[in-house]
Structures are given as C-alpha cells and as structure tokens.
Amino acid sequence: MKTKIITILALAAFAGFAYAAPQTFDFKDPKGGNSAIFKLEAPLETINGSANDISGSVSFDPENPGATTGKIVVAAESLTVPNPMQKEHMHSTTWLDVAKYPEITFEAKSLANVKTAGNVTTADVTGTFTLHGVSKEITAPVKLTYLKDKLGDRIPTLKGDLLVIRANFTINREDFDIQKGQHQDKVSPTINLTLGIAGASAK
Amino acid sequence: MKKILRVLAVLVLLAAGAIWLATGASRGWTKTSVMVKTPDPVTGLDGISYEKKFIAGVDFLGAAALGAGLLAGASLFFRKPKINQPTKQ
C-alpha cells in the first residue's frame, strides 16, 4: 500500500514537472508579421518607422512565467521610414551605421513584479539592450500572452503553442553613442520603441 | 530665352504647388510609402507593411522653389532683346 502511494505521488510529481517544463519559442516569423515600431520627434512632424526582420528565442514556462529568459534580435538594415533620404541617413555611418552594427538586440535576464491572470503575464523585464555597438542594462514593462495550441491557427501545417510579447519603452540615442550631443533640435534624442512579436513552439 | 526661363520658373512653382495640394498638402516631409497595419486575428498583433504612395512634403516645395529660383536667376544672364528703332528720313 505504502509502495503504491509513493509510486502514485512520484508519477504525479513527474507529470507536474513534465507539464511545467519551459518551452523554447522561436521568433523568426515565416509570415513576417513580427515588427518593432519606433517614434521620435523632429521638426515638422513625428518620425514613424518600423523594423520587420526580427528573430530570436525565448524560454517560457507557462507554470513559471517569472523565469522567462531569452534574446530578441532585430536586423538593423530592416529599419525603415517612409522618406527615402531619411532612411539612407538613418542607415549611414553618421547615425546607426548598419553595416558595422547589423544587429539590435535585447537579452532578457530577469523578470520582476510578475502578475499572471489566465494566459496573460505582465512584468518588468530587465536585460541588456545593444544598439550601435553599445550595451546598456534597461528595464521595461512587458506583456506575455501564452496561446496554447494556437500555432496551427496561424500556420495550418504546424502544431504547437504561440507566445506573444508586447513591450513599450523609451531609450536615449545618446546613451548608445548615436550623434551624441548633436542635432538635438532636429532629431530628438528620445526614441519610443514598441515591440509586438509572436514566437512559435512547435510540437 | 530670358522670358522662356522665367515662364519655366513659374511653371515649376505652379506644378509643384499643384502636386503638393493633390497629394494632401502635407506639412511634413515627403514620403514615398505609407505604413499599413494589418491585424492578425490569432495573435492580435498588427503586421506592418508599406504601400507605395507619393506624398509631397514641404521639402518637395522647397526643392521646387530652389529650382524655380535657379531658372529665374539664370534668366538674368540673358539680355533683353533690343527693339530696332526705325530711322527718321
């Protein structure tokens, strides 16, 4: 009897552990739907642009979302604005120097103030943000939405789960040695970033 | 030639103004595309794409004004044609 109880408890613990295992979500979206939007003030109007070549992976455990870690990579060359000359300047050695610094990355190290309601988790994520070859630790609010068994709804040939990450934060370009102390009246040092990306964990 | 250049200058200004008005009289920068957001029904995220569309901005007007100014300025290098006075007999 005692052996039976121990066996049942061990199986239950194993099942719980197996269910609670973190999953790896791949953020290279084959549908190209992942994007990052940036906004900054300039004379005449707000400059609105986006980047859509996003990749990376995040380890997420639905039972323990506070343990989420991962790295998101944005190809700097995919940054675009609707004015061709502005885009050219943005990519040039004078500003982002995308040839020398082809990637903009965020590596999440830890989450704090984690609150979960159903399949939605909000938290403050701390990690290393690298832009223009300069890395800085930043903390930003993030919202994680776990969509169990929804990968097939997006890509019918696959089965698995989706993880949607939304974040909005502000950086100062001068912290990343981008025209430090220059052109502050023409291009605001403050840049607002909005991330809306979905990663897939195929089964 | 002088007159031609000045007329061209005016035409450039008028054409630029007409294009600027026709494309929305934007007080911002010229754009060659516009951002289009397409919501994804599964994730709720907005997919971002760009649709080619020319929107003339104030820089377009400025470039036209500069071009017109150069044309008008070039006209100054040409002498006004002399009108032959009939000789008195």
Question: How many β-strand stretches of chain A?
Answer: 10
The average pLDDT of chain A is 91
Number of domains as seen in the coordinates of chain B: 1
The main sheet of chain A comes to: 10 strands, antiparallel
The total of beta strands of chain B comes to 2
- The CATH class of chain A turns out to be Mainly Beta
**What spatial form of chain B do the alpha-carbon principal axes imply?**
rod-shaped
Assembly context of the chains: heterodimer
Describe the structure concisely for a colleague.
Chain A contains three helices and ten strands; from the N terminus they run αβββββαβββαββ. Helix content of chain A is 15%, strand content 48%.
Topology:
The complex is a heterodimer of chains A (203) and B (89).
Chain A lengths: L1 H18 L3 E4 L8 E7 L4 E6 L2 E7 L8 E7 L8 H8 L11 E15 L2 E12 L2 E14 L3 H4 L5 E13 L17 E13 L1
Antiparallel strand pairs in A: 1-4, 2-3, 2-10, 4-5, 5-6, 6-7, 7-8, 8-9, 9-10
Chain B lengths: L1 H21 L8 E9 L6 E10 L2 H18 L14
Antiparallel strand pairs in B: 1-2
Helix pairs in contact in B: 1-2
Keywords:
heterodimer, A: 203 residues, mainly beta, Lipocalin, ten-stranded antiparallel β-sheet, 10 strands, B: alpha+beta, two-stranded antiparallel ribbon, 2 helices, 44% helix
